[in-house]
Amino acid sequence: MKHSIEMTNSLRVNRGQATDWYSRYESTRHLSERILAPLSAEDCAIQSMADASPTRWHLAHTTWFFETFLLKSLAGYEVYDVSFEYLFNSYYNAVGEQFPRSQRGLISRPGLKETLAYRRHVDQAMADLLAAENLTPDQSQVLAIGLNHEQQHQELMLTDIQHVLSCNPLDPIYQPDRVTSENLSELSWISVDEALAWIGTDTDDFAFDNERPRHRFFLDAYRIANRCVTNGEYLAFMSDGGYERPEFWLSQGWNTVREQGWRAPMYWSRSGDGWNQFTLAGRRPVRDQDSVSHVSYFEADAYARWAGCRLPTEQEWEYAVLQDLPSQASPNPRLGDAIGNLWQWTASQYIAYPGYRPPPGALGEYNGKFMCNQFVLRGGSHATPPGHIRPTYRNFFPPEARWQFSGIRLARNFDLQDSQCEAG
Amino acid sequence: MKHSIEMTNSLRVNRGQATDWYSRYESTRHLSERILAPLSAEDCAIQSMADASPTRWHLAHTTWFFETFLLKSLAGYEVYDVSFEYLFNSYYNAVGEQFPRSQRGLISRPGLKETLAYRRHVDQAMADLLAAENLTPDQSQVLAIGLNHEQQHQELMLTDIQHVLSCNPLDPIYQPDRVTSENLSELSWISVDEALAWIGTDTDDFAFDNERPRHRFFLDAYRIANRCVTNGEYLAFMSDGGYERPEFWLSQGWNTVREQGWRAPMYWSRSGDGWNQFTLAGRRPVRDQDSVSHVSYFEADAYARWAGCRLPTEQEWEYAVLQDLPSQASPNPRLGDAIGNLWQWTASQYIAYPGYRPPPGALGEYNGKFMCNQFVLRGGSHATPPGHIRPTYRNFFPPEARWQFSGIRLARNFDLQDSQCEAG
Amino acid sequence: MKHSIEMTNSLRVNRGQATDWYSRYESTRHLSERILAPLSAEDCAIQSMADASPTRWHLAHTTWFFETFLLKSLAGYEVYDVSFEYLFNSYYNAVGEQFPRSQRGLISRPGLKETLAYRRHVDQAMADLLAAENLTPDQSQVLAIGLNHEQQHQELMLTDIQHVLSCNPLDPIYQPDRVTSENLSELSWISVDEALAWIGTDTDDFAFDNERPRHRFFLDAYRIANRCVTNGEYLAFMSDGGYERPEFWLSQGWNTVREQGWRAPMYWSRSGDGWNQFTLAGRRPVRDQDSVSHVSYFEADAYARWAGCRLPTEQEWEYAVLQDLPSQASPNPRLGDAIGNLWQWTASQYIAYPGYRPPPGALGEYNGKFMCNQFVLRGGSHATPPGHIRPTYRNFFPPEARWQFSGIRLARNFDLQDSQCEAG
Amino acid sequence: MKHSIEMTNSLRVNRGQATDWYSRYESTRHLSERILAPLSAEDCAIQSMADASPTRWHLAHTTWFFETFLLKSLAGYEVYDVSFEYLFNSYYNAVGEQFPRSQRGLISRPGLKETLAYRRHVDQAMADLLAAENLTPDQSQVLAIGLNHEQQHQELMLTDIQHVLSCNPLDPIYQPDRVTSENLSELSWISVDEALAWIGTDTDDFAFDNERPRHRFFLDAYRIANRCVTNGEYLAFMSDGGYERPEFWLSQGWNTVREQGWRAPMYWSRSGDGWNQFTLAGRRPVRDQDSVSHVSYFEADAYARWAGCRLPTEQEWEYAVLQDLPSQASPNPRLGDAIGNLWQWTASQYIAYPGYRPPPGALGEYNGKFMCNQFVLRGGSHATPPGHIRPTYRNFFPPEARWQFSGIRLARNFDLQDSQCEAG
């Protein structure tokens, strides 16, 4: 129930967002620095793979966002360092050239100390701006995007630093008391009737452009699992030759399994007869009752096929969660861990909603240009900042990505009997 | 009108398929050898890139299909050469290990002469089987798949040999009189109303598993272009900096443009101030009125964005074409070149239809396992064998693929004014 | 004794070379076509790795050499096809651009038949030129280079076609009666005294530029093995963990062993408890008494280290062979298989002799520009054309190359006791 | 004259090395930390290419060397952290597995602070050991190797940090007052007569195994330049199309030029019509009178060919410098910048001297296993620690390496006239 409450809070906060921009700004920025706290300057300097970024880069880039899209055009604002425009631009071609993504780990300066000074400089200017209390609608919108953007990077800071630390044979610990979510309920199936559903959002509150426009989508009846797949269930797949039998895998997935030598989820390592997993709390035994995490789309899909089921489409996922919301007041929400446990891979490739048009200007590069060869994930994870997630929220990663906090929720065609479904 | 008539024929042939399997088998097999006729043994030996296969391999693999899935289990059938099971298996894991795809061009033996002897051996056994006239339903289905499979490879033989010949600075000619389709009609827009459409097929005739099951799909109103984009129109995109301006491109597409140095469609080369294009009829000037071909999804999508339009989804394409069919008796079909001109990239990534389940056994590997990181193309091309294509037919290739006969048809949201759409 | 006789013949032929150019030309060209005889058009079309070339390319390139450097400047000579200058230029920058080496296998035309017609055209023009009997000294020199060049390619045709055929799981046979050399003599050590030796050649007969100038080189006393290492001896190295123990290997060699997964010489494959090897006579059991072949420099060096010995330098090799020559009349030449058994890796990286200057013009690109990251091999192999090899002859390949007919001859410091040398 | 005096000192220090191990240890270790002083924790964490290592790794690895080869076997010594054996072993297979070289930049912990604590721990134990004053001969030898080993890494710390800083578009400055060597003397040629020279060393003082044994080498007469090539001279080569004309380049060098897009020495960048170069003192204009540095063997060799000269062999270099030493007392040493200006590429590939045998045990992996595909450099650079260099000293790098402080000294055959040599 924890997660659904958070979600409700999030919606409440969203509704109030016009009233107290400054406290939202301050608390969001503060969370980034709380995430930073356990790390050394060296931890923050390393880029352990091309897909990840150094912590220090995340801290600077999120700051650059506010400076570039809000402060720079203000009379009297002094840019902290003009070279940062190039160094900390991620992918906005409209803003200018970008320092190559894969080389972010080659930049030792500005160091952590100066990066924090840069944050202070921008925070002060933002405080001045927000104190003036006369944001234009455009400014409000950019500010909301900036805050949500920083929240996205807060989760990436955690996924990326986990990867950095996992490269170290000393198994460093980020936070010893960091918890994983148990998953004690029995697996059961929630039936959803055929519907011409409304998908996406038309909220006046903040939502990303890729969640719009709200539109109709026809759904055949289906069933969806009440909780995520557990380590124990996934181990049964592994024991049954899951990683050795091509019949469960997409062709490209099977190639990846062989080329990368996958034998288990990411961060798992053999320990005697069992398995350990590297986490932000260090390396420790895999627990059967935890939700299986750090799996790729390929693994989620193969597991589902092995189990005689399939993954839900993103529309099935969204419609089921929204249907479930009215029942949250009851003591037994049926999709208890849909929000805030693990990102759940859906069967949907990431494409534009009908009628989608990217917003004009540089911010139009936010979502639309990535609509290719990615799959949609839904629901957020334990690392997603409170208040950031929504049922209509669309995350996306390539099918081979495993370093995110990603898990598996199963679905089935309605007419499929329990006896045909091993997981049933 | 030529193409729609062919399609109608195709449907008629399909309905009659039970009555005359042998003539269908014979004519399909014969077409492969007609395609072979202009080629030398060396032409047939070369694999010019990992995605393509040598002509000789296509000839052997399609033969292996009939031998493996129909003949091998027959009492008295003698396998031509047991090693062929390994050499000519494309990707059927259930049948056994496969010779690596990227190394098909390293195999000089069996040579062309022996490959044709292999075809004769299998053709004789198939003639005996079909003369017996008592195919089981399973055999009929496999035979239908085998014939459609060979037809698919007939188009691939042409796309692959064009690539082989294009690598040769001597500009060899495959067939001097090979034509491209002119596109003389003015561009106009066909309006389609909002609908809860039926998509896919439930035919008793042959259709691929990925076209099933027939299901409902909600469509907002939209407009679709009456014909494919022409070279002349595409040259305007190029002149306007199409390949230099990142704002038109998907992120991954823009990376591909830069890494591959794309400046024009595949097979185009500079000739003075103008452009030539390498075709099966040799290298010759690009003609404005021809449909632009050999473009990737990335290019199709970028062109559409430049034109203020978008690509149709596969459901929009299919519904429009099926709506248009009743009007074929009229002198002016509205989507005259939808079928049999060029494969048209759609905005839809290739995923399973709701309720899809791959067929059991080795043939279940036919379509489902490729549902990842590919986009759907519709409509067939001038190289698609007559009788092979249908409005529900789903082809698919990765977004960077350019060596197929692929073109562009535009669509627009219904409420978009003509003035907002440059192509209008 | 067979090999030394051939060598003597070769020297005699060389001396007579001015008198009968035409018969030398004709017999050299004829040998290329005898090598071609067992091959199909497809065999000749394939380039199985970037280092190798299709047979058909060798046939055309050697012809191009005569056309380019001898015929083209003659009044009245008609170039067969101007595009061949680009297609069949290997690496002569002074002649013009070259078709990329790694793409030679992508060119299906000109086919084998036309390639042979090209040879006929050039052969006729060469016959006319040589009939005139008034070659200038420059022409004579280029002709001698051209003939030696074709002889080099004759050996490459064999090494390259062996590689092509080895890629085929059907184990095709090039020539069923092709023999390997037995090595029945006991291993013994020939002592050579300290000397200020003359190395290289100043012959008036043909020799490559890299064999010149003749110069003094000081040699400490050393010992050199009377014969090449056998398969049986090499198997002892393998049994002793040769491929698993880094202490025997150069650092770069050990990396190669691990990256390539080397476990035995090239072309060896497991057969039950023993080994087979793929040869031009097909796949057959490894025989203990044969000289070990298809080893890289890395393997030769590691074997020598394991045996407590080392490889000879190229100067030690040359001086020993030349010292041995006067004793050839005796019934027991001491270095019986030095010439014409297998190319023997030396410890010498391939650099210029003191005072070396490359010849002017395009032919100056023949040898000098490859003096980097290659090791010298000496002695020729059973695939080297008769009359082509000399004691001063320097061949060279990168240390990882294994597809040549390369073997191992050991050497030792003079003061090293037999007891310290396992191979002794 | 500065450099030759240093060298003399160095020899004197070497002779006294038995008397004061502790002060040598202390001053050597102290220099590493002086090199560290201008760097931040982040600077020390980054590995900017696979060939380079993070500063922190150098600091730890050199410490590991003393711990592993001297301290570990002492009664009572407590290993600082057993995991460091794996983390900081560079390439000693005899000691155990190594953390992959290319991933040294992925390790954020132990951080700089703990690395320095590790140094203190080992320094204390070493102080205790050296205070006892009863080193065995083996211990003395290992200690001498350890000190020379750390000196080698001191130069690498500088070359590697220059590379790290050069990746940063902010052009960070390591030391603003860091100087480059001017080269004011006119180019002149020193003649050396034919000789049977003694090469290598048999000193009782420290020298690396690859400098031994001392042996005879025959040299034809030659000439060698009195100083290194200057930027001004090298710019003339560039202006004459040096990087565009294949005739000057080795085949592999020319491929590298094209693949890497080389247009100038490493670290040079265009600045208007001129050139800047990135140095440890930041980015600044290229000065004509400085010695050209950061060139590869390929560039040194191409420059020499363009100048109508060649590079000296390592034997020619060593013999000339040793001949020149007796004249050092005179006011005009003829090879004034041979020692301590820039490492000078020689024409010699790096192979073992006649009679060379690697020392037994793990330290035998020091030099011998790298004798492959590297060229010898002689003379040390301005970044080589005082007392480390000798005329017999052999450094080695692959021919494409440019990030070392490497320059060019020319040589010529004796009989080559000045008029044939542009550089003359």
Commentary on this structure:
The structure is a homotetramer of 424-residue chains. Chain A has 424 residues and is α+β, with helices and mostly antiparallel strands. Chain A is 33% helix and 12% strand. Chain A is built from ten helices and twelve strands. In chain A, the strands form four sheets. In chain A, strands 10-9-8-11 form a four-stranded mixed sheet. In chain A, strands 1-4-12 form a three-stranded antiparallel sheet, covered by helices on one side. In chain A, a hairpin with a 2-residue loop joins strand 6 (274-279) and strand 7 (282-285). In chain A, helix 2 (21-36) packs antiparallel against helix 5, helix 2 (21-36) packs parallel to helix 6 (137-166) and helix 3 (55-71) packs antiparallel against helix 6 (137-166). The first copy, chain A, is globular, with a radius of gyration of 22 Å. The A-B interface holds A 91, 93-94, 196, 215-220, 246-247, 249-254, 297-298, 313, 347-349, 351-352, 354-355, 357, 369-373, 399, 413 and B 91, 93-94, 196, 215-220, 246-247, 249-254, 297-298, 313, 347-349, 351-352, 354-355, 357, 369-373, 399, 413.
